[in-house]
Design a protein that fits this description.
3-stranded mixed beta sheet
């Protein structure tokens, strides 16, 4: 008998082969809801909660024009495309539990106690790695640009240990591991809630003159995993489907905020992502499951954390148009050297926002409905490394390795100074 994981994997393959939908140009958004003037006040309030994302009045105006345009009119396809583009900018419904939250998130609970360092003042990550020669972020010449880095020696080992630790735990919990592409077309990115080709975007685009049109670097494996399931039909009996992937994430964003200095916000990093597909009545329970999974992964690492239920305005950022979130939990770790909390993980319920745009459905009793999709961060490497090194630093200069990670680091208990790679010195080259 097939295991549940194998059966679910075969479910993806079976339905992609047998029940593949033809490609559809337009997302199947709930037009009846968004364009019904009786719902206007509710939608406007949701837009206000989400910091003004979307223009309902413009959507309604374009809907009336599109609706009155004849199918035989040469402008019909143009009007339809414009209407759906504007409609896609409206945010998803906000979960009822968080509608009344104000600016601040709600604290769910805290995990692990803060460590007492006594008379020792904890050092910041950048100073620790400088003293131990474990990272390089400057003097990189033309190798890479701003917000880039090299991990050296045992810090590079620790990165790999975190990945292996996270993947191993997820496989034991029934997740299916998928290796994903990092280059995607705009249709996948926009269907997942990202915007491209605008003044302020997180997405790197490839040069169309050299690499072909409409190619972009993925910001997270969530997009590739969602794209894998595009135009598929799934049996209800085989849901929920739980996938995980390790990928490089590319972000064009920059920040001059002091709290986001160093490798806290960088242009590329490695992340282990969780992605789930459920029926609508399973998605709230799955969101709690993803949050609990993150807590189970992070708690043995010994870092102090707080779990936050995020308010509506944090569910969509106007600069980047992450519009789809119905509900979102963040986990923040205490970073002693920075003397501040920093986000290390989040998990989100996107309901049917992505599935309507990517046409991912399930079948039950001869009826088809849209699935719900959810995602969660199992490990975002740079920020986790900051939290680990700052938490487990020793006044004598060593870094204790949490017991949970030691099996993935050849049973090492401590990290020490790296002497295999010499300090880099710049020298002038005479022409």
């Amino acid at each position: 008998m097939l295991s549940n994981v194998a059966a679910r994997a075969r479910n993806i393959i079976k339905f992609k082969r047998v029940r593949l939908y033809s490609a559809v140009s337009f997302p199947d958004i709930d037009v009846d809801y968004y364009c019904n003037e009786q719902n206007s006040e509710e939608i406007k309030q949701n837009i206000a909660r989400r910091k003004g994302i979307g223009d309902l009045q413009k959507v309604l105006e374009m809907y009336n024009i599109y609706k009155q345009t004849s199918v035989t009119d040469s402008k019909y396809d143009i009007m339809k495309r414009r209407f759906y583009k504007e409609l896609s900018s409206l945010p998803n419904k906000t979960h009822p539990s968080v509608r009344d939250y104000e600016e601040e998130p709600r604290l769910v609970h805290e995990l692990n106690d803060k460590r007492d360092y006594g008379s020792h003042t904890p050092l910041e990550f950048s100073e620790i790695t400088r003293r131990l020669n474990l990272m390089r972020t400057d003097k990189l010449g033309q190798t890479c640009g701003h917000k880039s880095y090299y991990f050296l020696g045992e810090l590079a080992e620790l990165e790999e240990a975190l990945i292996k630790y996270s993947v191993s735990a997820l496989l034991n919990k029934g997740f299916e591991l998928v290796s994903v592409p990092d280059i995607l077309p705009s249709s996948i990115l926009e269907s997942c809630g990202m915007t491209v080709n605008r003044d302020r975007t997180q997405i790197y685009s490839l040069d169309p003159l050299h690499h072909g049109p409409d190619l972009y670097l993925s910001g997270t494996a969530e997009m590739s995993l969602a794209g894998l399931l595009m135009n598929t039909l799934h049996a209800k009996s085989l849901l929920p489907l739980k996938l995980t992937a390790v990928s490089r994430c590319y972000r064009a964003e920059t920040s001059s905020v002091l709290e986001e200095r160093g490798i806290y916000r960088v242009h590329q990093f490695t992340k282990v992502e969780m992605f789930a597909v459920t029926t609508p009545d399973q998605s709230e329970e799955m969101l709690e499951y993803l949050r609990e999974t993150e807590e189970e992964l992070f708690t043995p690492l010994g870092i102090h954390m707080r779990v936050l239920d995020m308010p509506p305005h944090e569910l969509g950022a106007p600069a980047y148009s992450i519009l789809f979130l119905c509900r979102k939990y963040d986990i923040e770790a205490w970073m002693p050297g920075r003397r501040n909390f920093g986000e290390i993980s989040s998990c989100s319920n996107c309901t049917d926002y992505q599935s309507r745009r990517l046409h991912i459905k399930y079948t039950h009793n001869n009826a088809t409905k849209y699935v719900h999709t959810l995602n969660g961060t199992a490990c975002a490497v740079p920020r986790m490394l900051i939290a680990l090194l700052e938490t487990h630093q020793d006044p004598k200069g060593k870094i204790s390795i949490p017991k949970a990670l030691q099996p993935f680091m050849n049973r090492k208990k401590f990290m020490s100074k790296n002497s295999s790679v010499p300090d880099l010195k710049l020298s002038k080259i005479k022409k």
